[in-house]
Amino acid sequence: MRPIRLPEPPSPTLGVPEIFENGAYSVIRRAVVIGNGFPGSENQSLGLIHALGLADNHVLYRVTRPSGGINEWLRWLPVSLHKILHYIIMRIYSYSRFIVSRGKKLAPLPSENGGNVGLSSVLEADSKQIVNMARESYEKDGPLLVVASGRDTISIASSIKHLASEKVFLVQIQHPRSDLSRFDLVVTPRHDYYALTPQAQEQIPRFIRKWLTPHETPDQHVVLTVGALHQIDFAALHSAASTWHDEFAPLPKPLLVVNVGGPTCRCRYGTELAQQLSAFLTNVLVNSGSVRISFSNRTPKKVSNIIIKELANNPKVYIWDGEEPNPYTGQLAWADAFVVTADSVSMISEACSTGKPVYVMGSERCTWKLADFHKSLRERGVVRPFTGSEDISESWSYPPLNDTAEVARRVHDMLAERGLRVRP
């Protein structure tokens, strides 16, 4: 049985007019990625950079927030205001401790991520520094491609575009909610526009609608995707199949891969889902050759502990212990079918890019635009709900999700319209 069924996507057509073919500034050779510190968000930017052939010629910057304690309640604020409040709170805290403990040796401030709390612990992307780099290297290296993802990156990315408009091509991933003209291209899943549907409008109090919904309908420079962008393509799966051959090839077939995420505000669950998932997996073990289970960094211990307790002693089951190397890409390449918890758009999108059967666990617990995402996948025949009565040896197929390659083609087309091309 072949481990991979995903067809290789066609090479994008550049369509660069001849007049620009030899132009000094017509070629984009490097990229800047602006991330927010969340792997699921940054992976989308890196996936697009990879699809454009610039994986070996990019620089990653991050816009990060203070974390720990009260900061978790301040994450809804704009990042700049969050930092100011964090600074003020830390100054007040330090001053109050000084007054209370006069003459006494003070205990150290609470730590954050292993370091001292304060603005010095925040790694910040500098828009002026990136603009200067774009200007100073323009004659030698041509325009700079900037790819940003996530709400916290919007202000710095749009500032770079404003300050160096002719020297930068800016792609913003995830909907910026307003003023789309600040970006050359906006990439966002269709379910981000769920808030504009009549059924969604009925669920939103009028006074907070502008905070939750996009202010503009999609125009010509908005690319709508089904799921999330990622780095899983034919080449990545082919390489992973070779790398993990010795571990996966001998496993009894069919191989069922189970990827467990963690509850979110739009997809809440706890130990009851873990117990249900364990029971369903026990049922399908009868017609499965082997089962591989992996947990994400977001999986609560109370969830993983139940699954481990119920299934770890079954000889058909292997549960990854979290130690490197991570078998994730190997499992994507060699699996015959997947079960994925409904909370993770990224993990579902990656599994659905293989063209293999994907069963989703817990989608009925999801609300708002995440529920709309699952509905769209079911209507396309890309996923099915996991019920525990499946015959894992049954194979069914669908047109694989290919969002990343499609967005890369759109970037090439828009660059060509401006007389530009990407050349690694």
From TrEMBL:
Coiled coil: none annotated. GO terms for biological process: mitochondrial fission. InterPro entries: Elm1-like. GO terms for cellular component: mitochondrial outer membrane. SUPFAM superfamilies: UDP-Glycosyltransferase/glycogen phosphorylase. This is Mitochondrial fission protein ELM1-like. The lineage of its organism: Eukaryota, Viridiplantae, Streptophyta, Embryophyta, Tracheophyta.
